[in-house]
Amino acid sequence: MSRQLGAGGDFAAAYVVAHEVAHHVQDELGILGEANRIRQQSSQAQSNAISVRIELQADCFSGIWAQQAQAMLGTLEAGDLEEAVNAAHQIGDDTLQRNAGQTPMPHTFTHGTSKQRGEWFMRGYRSGDMGQCDTFAARNL
Ligand SMILES: [Zn+2]
To answer: Which of 75, 92, 119, 128 has a 20 to 30 A CA-CA distance from 100?
Structure first.
């Protein structure tokens, strides 16, 4: 992550793990099943747009995890949040496509922009509230 993505730091790795665990939480809550059912009946662009909402919600849940880790264990160190947000920025679709020498094409995005990923992570972190992570109801991501 540090070498290929420019996303170094222990908390950058923690964010990525938390993001994957968040997908498991989404699965347990039935969110993934429902979203994927709708995706199968959608156009490619619509399916991608739903994917973005799934992924940004996982980023928001990751932020809640970070908030809880800090509240319960006090384990966040100076710079940790910045590492997570930097990692979220580095794996935004626009940044990945730009780094691959392409012009970012929003209809192909499946994970959200760098800005969106960082913002949804921080939204989860600041609120600690799953109700604030309803990307499916959000008018603006
Ligand atoms: Zn994901």
So the answer is: 119
Residue position matching structure tokens 């309803």: 134
CA distance 128 to 133: 9
26, 91 in Cβ contact below 8 A?
no
Predicted TM-score (pTM) of the model is 0.96
Taking the CB of residue 13, how many other CB atoms lie within 10 A of it?
16
**pLDDT of the chain along its 141 residues, tens only?**
888 888 889 999 999 999 999 999 999 999 999 999 999 999 999 999 999 999 999 999 999 999 999 999 998 999 999 999 999 999 999 999 999 999 999 999 999 999 999 999 999 999 999 999 999 999 999
CA of 20 to the centre of ligand 1 (A): 6
Cα–ligand 1 centroid distance for 3 (angstroms): 20
Distance of CA 72 from the midpoint of ligand 1 (Å):
25
